[in-house]
Each structure stands twice: as structure tokens, then as C-alpha cells.
Amino acid sequence: MKKGFALIELLVVVALIGILSAVGVVTYNGYISTSQDKASLSNFNQIVKTMNNELANCRINPSAQAFSNHSCSSNSEPSVAGISDYFKSSNLKNPYDGNKDVVGQNICNKGEVVISASSVSGSYQVQYVSQKKDLKYTKVVESKWSAETTSMMSKEESYKCASQNTNMTATATAPKQTIYTYKPPHDGPGAGIIVDENGNMISGRGAHACHASCFDGSMPNWYTTDSNGNRIYPGRPGSKWRWVMTEAANEKTGNIASSCNGGNCKYNFSDNTYTVLNSGITYKAGETLANRKPVNP
Q1: Rounded to an integer, what distance in angstroms lies between the CA atom of residue 66 and that of residue 77?
Q2: Among positive and negative, which fits the CA dihedral 45, 50, 51, 56?
């Protein structure tokens, strides 16, 4: 008699192999996910450590340079953009996608570390979100240019992105813009106003025609004074006052005009709009007087 396996026995073996394969795939994916998350957190800690070392060297040696190209003897601190570019050219790799930068602008992009100006002038905030653990890590780095000591130096808090962003695309809800993350509506000249973090203009001050450097943060040492004679640095990272653009210059003539004279406007950082107070009409920032249209007609 010839002996062999019954069909039911073969089916059981195939089913068992399928189950074991599925378990193996899940285990492998979990291992990869954990490794990527640990590597991202390691990048975050390495960035903080490097920033502390670079800025500490400036305290010790004023003739040195921080982040390769910023003079430690400068009157202003290194820009956030300059520090970010320094790490983008480093050997750090994004563990989720080696072709993507480690330092970026969206903490809900997997593996991305965000560097921004702290609420204290001259200090920096470094953040990373572990989407595996739903935790946001925040560390503050001070410099010799820090206006005062920062009380909160390290923090961990629950934070869940709106979407698990595996393709490095900003599908999560982007954080609203604030005075510390302000970006002008375009890179040309226009009418600008100096406002606080709530969008209120300096008391009794009007709007001013200004070139692009007023709005992009490249004039950190320019200052004006408030009604009490205190200096205000609207172009300095971390300042509680900011130059913001309301109207753009005329495309054809280059002329600049504004409806915000005499403190007549209020700015909204979250959506880059401004309201003309005596009319109550809100406009999108960065449009000319001739072309602007009310966003709340």
C-alpha cells in the first residue's frame, strides 16, 4: 500500500504556515517601527546636544564661529534658518526616509525635528513628536544672547497628530501660525505694521513702507521705541513684537500705500489677515490696495 498525506492534513499545514508568516511580518514591522522611532529620538537629542555645544563655545570664545558661519562676537544670535541649514548638511539621516531632511517645519512629519525661536529672545525651542508613543518632546536651548533665563528647559507631553504620516506628506493639521513662526505673504516690499503677539499695533504708531528685509527677520538689530521709551526689536527672533506685512507694493508703479495709519489695524497671525478697525473689514495680507477684496464682506 502507498501511504501519503490526506488533503485535510495538507490544508492544515498550509494554514499553519500562513499564520506563522503573518505573525512574523507583524513582529518584523513592529521591530522596524520601534527602531525608526528610537533613531528619530536619538537625532533629536543629538541636535539639542550639538546646539548646546556650539552656543556654549560662543560664551567661552567670542572669536569663534557657531554653526560654521555665525560669528560669536555678533550682536545678534544665529538665525533659526541658519541653524536648520547647518543640520540639513550634517550626517544625520531621517530613519523613515533617507532622502528627507531631519530638520524641518512640521513635527507631524515622521522623523522630523523642528527648531524654532523660543518665547525668550535669544533662545531656541527644539521639538520632536513620537507618533508611535503619541508624545511630544520639547527642549529649550539658551545662548549668550538670551534675554533672560528660560524656566522650562525640557518637557514631555501627550500629543497625537491628526494622521500617521508615513509618506512624509503634511496630511496632519498644520499648527496655526504665531508671532514666533510668522512668514510674510510674499518676499517683496509693502506696507508694514509693528504688532504684538495678539496682533495689536504699537500704540499711536502708523504703518510704514518697507522693503522685504523688514518682514523676513533679516534686520534683528533695528529697533523703535514704545510710548514709554522702551526699545522694541520687531525683526529679532523670539521678540514679542513683529513687523508684519499688510498691503503689498503696486505691481506696476512700486508705490506703497496703507489703510493702517494711526494704529487703525489689527493683525491675525493664524490666517495672515488684517482688519481695518474703523471699517471692520478684514483683508488677506500681501495684496495691493487696488486688488484686495474683503474676506468677510
Answers
A1: 10
A2: positive
At 104-135, the pLDDT tens digits run 888 888 899 999 888 788 889 999 999 888 89
Cβ proximity of 276 and 291 under 8 Å: no
Task: List Cα–Cα distances, 246 to 208, 236, 255, in angstroms.
Answer: 10, 19, 14
Alpha carbon 120 to its chain centroid, in Å, reads: 16
What are the grid coordinates assigned to 35, written together? 527602531
pLDDT digit string, tens, across residues 23-81: 554 454 556 888 889 999 999 999 999 999 999 999 999 999 999 999 999 998 999 88
Pairwise CA distance, residues 105 & 116, whole Å: 9
Name the amino acid, one letter, at 7. Answer: L
How distant, in Å, are the alpha carbons of 117, 118, 184, 264 from that of 146? Answer: 11, 10, 25, 33
Three-state DSSP class for residue 81: helix
For 204, phi and psi rounded to 5 degrees? 75, 5
Residues 6+ apart with CB under 8 A from 238: 117, 118, 119, 120, 121, 122, 123, 147, 180
At position 231, the amino acid (one-letter code) is R
- Of the candidates 153, 101, 102, 103, the residue with the CA atom closest to the CA atom of residue 124: 153
Instruction: List the grid coordinates of 241.
Output: 513684537
- Could you tell me the three cell numbers for 145? 544672547
Cβ atoms < 10 Å from Cβ of 194? 23
> Considering the entire predicted model, what is its pTM?
0.51
CA 76, 79, 80, 86 torsion-angle sign:
negative
